[in-house]
Design brief:
- The complex is a heterodimer of chains A (347) and B (335).
- Chain A has 347 residues and is an all-alpha fold.
- Chain A is built from 15 helices and two strands.
- Chain A has helices at residues 4-30, 32-58, 63-67, 73-83, 89-101, 115-150, 155-168, 172-186, 202-235, 239-246, 251-263, 265-289, 294-303, 307-335, 337-346; strands at residues 107-108, 113-114.
- Chain A has a two-stranded antiparallel ribbon with strand order 1-2.
- The N and C termini of chain A lie far apart (51 Å).
- By secondary structure, chain B is mostly helical.
- The longest helix of chain B is centred in the middle third of the chain and has 37 residues, at 119-155.
- Chain B has helices at 13-21, 27-36, 49-66, 81-87, 89-92, 119-155, 157-171, 175-186, 192-219, 223-230, 235-271, 283-295, 301-327, 330-334.
- In chain B, helix 3 crosses helix 6, helix 3 (49-66) packs across helix 13 and helix 6 (119-155) runs antiparallel to helix 11.
- The chains are: A mainly alpha (347), B mainly alpha (335).
- The interface between A and B is large, with 85 and 70 residues.
C-alpha cells in the first residue's frame, strides 16, 4: 500500500527545500550578510533541536519509567541505556542529535517500534493535507481578491470583505465540526474520518481529504483575499493601469495580466510562510478527522506519554519549519533585489 | 475600474514586519496581516455601531465571568436529570441524523450537554477560564515581549541583534506545536490553568516583542526623543515616557488579536485532550463534551454553543483591534 502521490510529493518538496537551501548557501557564503545569516540559521537549528531534546527531561519523574509505566526495574535498565540516561546531559544531547541527523528518531516504547517507521508515511499525509489546503485557499482567494479590488467600494466588496473578516474569526476546528455534522453525518456525502491513500483509490482519497483540506483552507481564503484585495486596490491606482485602459484592453486582461503580478507580493509571501505555519493548524484537523499525519502522531505520542517520540516529532517539525522559512527567505533575496540590498545595508 | 477610491495606505502589517525583522513569520503574523489588511485610518472621534456591539459583548462577558457565583444560574458541575432525560441519547442512537433528541429542557436557556450540565452555566463559568487564559497569557506576553522589544528597538546594535535572534528562535517552532509540547511536559507539576497560561504566554512573547521593537525603532528616531536626550533625560525615562506611549496603540491592537488567537488555541488544546480537566469548564471544553453527540448525528447543539462563544469573542476582539489600529493610525506611524 505505498502511497505514491504522498511519497512523491514529500520527496519533491524535501528535494526542493534542500536545493533551495544549498542554493542559498552558495550565495550566502559569497557575502558578509549571507555568512551572518547562515551562522544565525545554524544557531537557530542548534537551539531548536536542544529545546526539543530537553522536552524529555522537563517531564516530571524518571523518563524511562514515564514511557514504560508497568515495566520492572530490570526491564527499564536497557531502556535507560538506550536513551542514554546514564550519561551527562550534554553528551546525551550530542548523541541524540547525531542519531537524529542520521535518521534514528528513537523508539515508541508503547509499541516498541522505531519512530522512523511511522514518520515516513505520516509526513506524506501531512504534506498532502497542507498542499491541498493551500491549493484550495489560493484557488478561491485569488479570483475573489481580484473581484473585490475591482469592485472596491461596492456592495460586493463590502460583503466579501465582511464575510472574510468573519471567516478569520472562526477557528478551523469549528469549521471542521460544521462540515462533519452537515455534510458528512447528515448529508452523508463525505466520510467523517479515516484516510485512504491515493494509490489505493484516487476518488476515495479526494473524498476523504476534501473536508479536512477545506476546513484548513477557509480562514486562509479569507486572509489571502484580504491581502490581495488591499494590494490590488493600490496597483489599480497606478499609471500603467490607466495606460492599459487607455489602450482599450479588456478589464479581464488588465486585471489578470497587468495588475495581478505586481499585487501578489504580499500574498505570495504570506502563502509561502504559511506552508510551514499550517503544520500547527494541521495538528488539530488531523486529530479531528483521524488522518494519520505528523500532527496525529505527535498528539498520540503526547497522549501515551512517549516523550522520546515527542522529542523526534517536535524536532522534525521545527527543523522543517526553520529550513523552509530560510528557503523562502533565500529565494526572496534572489528574486527581489530590494530585500537583498536592504539586508546588505542593514548588516 | 474604480475611480474615486481613496488610496489605501501602503503595505500591510506583513510588509512592515518583513522590512523590519526579515522574513521569518508564523501563522500568528500572517493572521494579523489578514485581519488588518486594508484598514482605513479614520480620525472619527465616535465609535461606530460595530465597535459598541463588540465592547458590550466583551464587557458583558467579563462581568458575567466575574459575577458568575452570584448570578442566578446553575453550578457548572451540577447535573440535571431533566436535561439527561431530554437528551436520552440511547433512544435515538439507532437513527443517526434523524434523532428526536432535544438539547433543551425546561428552565435551561441554552440547553444542556451529555453529562446533564446546564450549558449556560458551563459557558459563563467557561468564560472565566477562557478569558483568564486569554488575557493572562497576553499580559505576560506584553510584559516580557514589550520589554524586550522596547530595549532592542531603543538601544539597537548588539543588544538588539541578540534580542531579535532570541525572538526568532521562539518563532522557530509552530505556535501550537510549542504550546502542545510545553503543556504535555509540564502537566502534573503546576495546576492545569497555570500550565496553559505559561505555554500560551510563551508563544505570544515573540509576536508582541517584534511589533514593539519595530515601532520603537521608528519612534526613537523622532525629534522629541532627541530633544529629551538633549535635556539630559535618562534612557529609561525616555523609553517609558517618550517612546512607550507612542508604541502602546500598536501593542494594544496586536494584543487584542493575540487574546483571540490564545482563546482559540486553548480550545484546540482541549480538543487534543491536553489542557484543563473536565471539571474545569471552558469553551473548548464545551465543544469537546459535545463531540460525541455531533459525530453520532444526535445533535450539533452542544458543539455550536461552545463555538458560538468562541466565535463572537474572537470576532469582537478582532474588530476592536481593527478599530484601535484605524483610530491611532498605527500603520502610518510605523512609516
Amino acid at each position: 500500500m505505498l502511497d505514491a502521490l504522498g511519497t512523491i510529493l514529500g520527496i519533491l518538496l524535501i528535494l526542493f527545500v534542500i536545493l533551495g537551501v544549498l542554493g542559498v548557501l552558495a550565495l550566502a557564503v559569497g557575502t558578509r550578510a549571507g555568512r551572518k545569516k547562515l551562522l544565525q540559521l545554524i544557531v537557530v537549528l542548534l537551539v531548536v533541536t536542544f529545546f526539543s531534546f530537553s522536552l524529555l527531561h522537563l517531564t516530571p519523574g524518571d523518563p524511562a519509567r514515564t514511557q514504560k509505566p508497568f515495566a520492572t526495574e530490570a526491564q527499564l535498565r536497557p531502556i535507560r541505556k538506550e536513551i542514554g540516561l546514564d550519561k551527562p546531559f550534554l553528551v546525551q544531547y550530542k548523541d541524540w542529535l547525531f542519531d537524529f541527523v542520521r535518521g534514528d528518531f528513537g523508539k515508541d516504547y508503547s509499541t516498541n517500534l522505531p519512530v522512523k517507521d511511522s514518520i515516513g508515511k505520516q509526513l506524506g499525509v501531512s504534506l498532502q493535507l497542507i498542499f491541498y489546503a493551500q491549493f484550495l485557499a489560493l484557488l478561491f482567494a485569488i479570483p475573489l481578491g481580484i473581484l473585490a479590488a475591482y469592485k472596491a467600494g461596492t456592495w460586493f466588496d463590502k460583503i466579501a470583505n465582511s464575510v472574510a473578516f468573519g471567516a478569520i474569526a472562526i477557528p478551523p476546528f469549528v469549521i471542521a465540526f460544521v462540515f462533519i455534522f452537515y455534510l458528512a453525518v447528515q448529508g452523508g456525502w463525505f466520510p467523517t474520518q479515516q484516510y485512504v491513500a491515493f494509490g489505493t483509490d484516487p476518488a476515495e482519497h479526494i473524498k476523504h481529504m476534501f473536508l479536512p483540506a477545506l476546513s484548513l483552507a477557509i480562514a486562509q481564503i479569507a486572509i489571502y483575499m484580504r491581502l490581495l484585495r488591499s494590494d490590488m486596490i493600490q496597483t489599480l491606482q497606478e499609471d500603467f493601469i490607466t495606460m492599459a485602459k487607455a489602450k482599450g484592453l479588456t478589464n479581464r486582461r488588465i486585471l489578470w495580466r497587468h495588475a495581478l503580478r505586481p499585487s501578489s507580493f504580499t500574498l505570495l509571501t504570506a502563502a509561502a510562510l504559511n506552508f510551514g505555519a499550517l503544520i500547527g493548524g494541521a495538528v488539530v484537523i488531523e486529530f479531528i478527522f483521524q488522518l494519520p499525519g505528523m500532527g496525529l502522531g505527535l498528539v498520540t505520542a503526547v497522549g501515551t506519554r512517549q516523550y522520546s517520540a515527542v522529542q523526534a516529532y517536535v524536532a522534525l517539525i521545527a527543523v522543517a519549519f526553520v529550513l523552509f522559512n530560510a528557503f523562502v527567505d533565500g529565494v526572496y533575496s534572489v528574486l527581489d533585489p530590494r530585500i537583498r540590498h536592504a539586508r546588505v545595508a542593514a548588516a | 475600474m474604480p475611480e474615486s477610491q481613496p488610496p489605501e495606505s501602503a503595505g500591510t502589517a506583513l510588509a512592515d514586519e518583513m522590512e523590519t525583522t526579515g522574513l521569518v513569520a508564523d501563522a500568528f503574523t500572517v493572521e494579523i496581516a489578514g485581519v488588518t489588511a486594508g484598514v482605513q485610518p479614520t480620525r472619527k472621534r465616535r465609535l461606530g455601531f460595530g465597535a459598541w456591539l463588540a465592547l458590550v459583548w466583551l464587557v458583558g462577558l467579563i462581568v458575567a465571568a466575574i459575577a458568575a457565583p452570584i448570578l442566578p444560574i446553575a453550578g457548572p458541575n451540577e447535573t440535571f436529570t431533566s436535561i439527561q432525560r431530554a437528551q436520552a441519547p440511547f433512544a435515538t442512537i439507532s437513527t443517526p441524523g434523524g434523532g428526536t433528541t432535544t438539547p433543551f429542557a425546561e428552565g435551561h436557556l441554552l440547553g444542556g450537554d451529555r453529562n446533564g450540565h446546564d450549558l449556560l452555566s458551563r459557558a459563563v463559568y467557561g468564560a472565566r477560564n477562557s478569558l483568564i487564559v486569554g488575557f493572562g497569557a497576553i499580559a505576560f506576553g506584553i510584559l516580557v515581549g514589550g520589554l524586550l522589544g522596547l530595549i532592542g528597538g531603543y538601544y539597537r546594535g548588539r543588544v538588539d541583534s541578540v534580542i531579535v535572534a532570541f525572538l526568532d528562535i521562539m518563532l522557530a517552532i509552530p505556535a501550537l506545536v510549542l504550546a502542545l509540547s510545553l503543556t504535555a511536559v509540564l502537566r502534573g507539576r503546576v495546576p492545569d490553568l497555570w500550565i496553559l497560561v505559561i505555554a500560551l504566554a510563551i508563544i505570544s512573547v515573540p509576536v508582541l516583542g517584534r511589533i514593539t521593537r519595530a515601532n520603537t525603532l521608528v519612534w526613537s528616531e523622532r525629534e522629541f526623543v532627541t530633544a529629551a536626550r538633549a535635556q539630559g533625560a535618562k534612557n529609561w525615562r525616555i523609553m517609558t515616557r517618550e517612546v512607550l506611549p507612542n508604541v502602546l496603540p500598536a501593542m494594544f491592537s496586536i494584543a487584542l488579536l493575540g487574546v483571540a488567537v490564545v482563546i482559540s488555541a486553548e480550545a484546540a488544546l482541549r480538543l487534543l485532550g491536553i489542557g484543563l480537566s473536565i471539571t474545569d469548564p471552558s469553551w473548548g471544553g464545551i465543544i469537546n463534551d459535545g463531540r460525541d453527540f455531533l459525530t453520532q448525528g444526535i445533535t450539533a447543539h452542544v458543539v455550536f454553543v461552545g463555538s458560538a462563544f468562541i466565535f463572537f469573542t474572537i470576532l469582537a476582539l478582532n474588530y476592536l483591534a481593527d478599530v484601535v489600529r484605524a483610530r491611532f493610525d498605527v500603520r502610518e506611524a510605523a512609516i
